[in-house]
Amino acid sequence: MASIGDQLITAMVAALNAPAGKPLPTVRQRPRPVGAENQDGSSGIDAMLLYTKAEQSKRVSANRVKRERTIALEIPIAGTADDGPLDAAADPRYVFAVNTLFADPTFGGLCLWLEEVSVNWEVASDYLDIAVTLLELKVVFETTVDPSVLP
């Protein structure tokens, strides 16, 4: 059985891919150099990337562990100087991601809560016409000592 943390990542990817009007598909993988293909065959700017960055845990009782998992969502956008500021063009994708993920911030009871930690808008250093919005999230959940079992 997958850990609760892994189930949460799977649920987040599914939530971001569910809406018919999604701006881009979401794939679960670490970032690749700009222009490299993603695991699903799309280019590096044709998909949002969701991945785990870190997890901290603290035992709260003999058989319960509180876990805080940091998750990154990279949201790319490509454009030209004629399109206007890339951070402004990226904003609707950021809003989509936040609204979608916070529609059910416990993901059906898998976690206690979801919070937005930070958001950064960055232009790829080698490509001035590509920007990435990096959304960092934290999911907080409890498990038994076995990370695949809810208390």
Q: How is this structure best described in words?
A:
With 151 residues, this protein is an alpha+beta fold. It has one domain (4-144): Phage minor tail protein U (Alpha-Beta Plaits), CATH 3.30.70.1700. The chain is built from two helices and five strands, in the order H-E-E-E-H-E-E. The protein has helices spanning 4-17, 86-101, and strands at residues 26-28, 48-61, 64-78, 113-123, 130-144. The protein is elongated, with a radius of gyration of 17 Å. 22% of the residues are buried. The model has no long low-confidence stretch (mean pLDDT 86).
CATH architecture: 2-Layer Sandwich
Mean pLDDT: 86
Radius of gyration: 17 Å
Which bin fits the share of residues in helices? Answer: 10-25%
Order of helices and strands: HEEEHEE
What is the element layout, followed by pairings?
Layout: H1 4-17, E1 26-28, E2 48-61, E3 64-78, H2 86-101, E4 113-123, E5 130-144
Parallel strand pairs: 1-2
Antiparallel strand pairs: 2-3, 3-5, 4-5
A few lines on this structure:
This protein is of the alpha+beta class and 151 residues long. It has two helices and five strands.
Spell out the key features of this protein.
151 residues; Alpha-Beta Plaits; alpha+beta
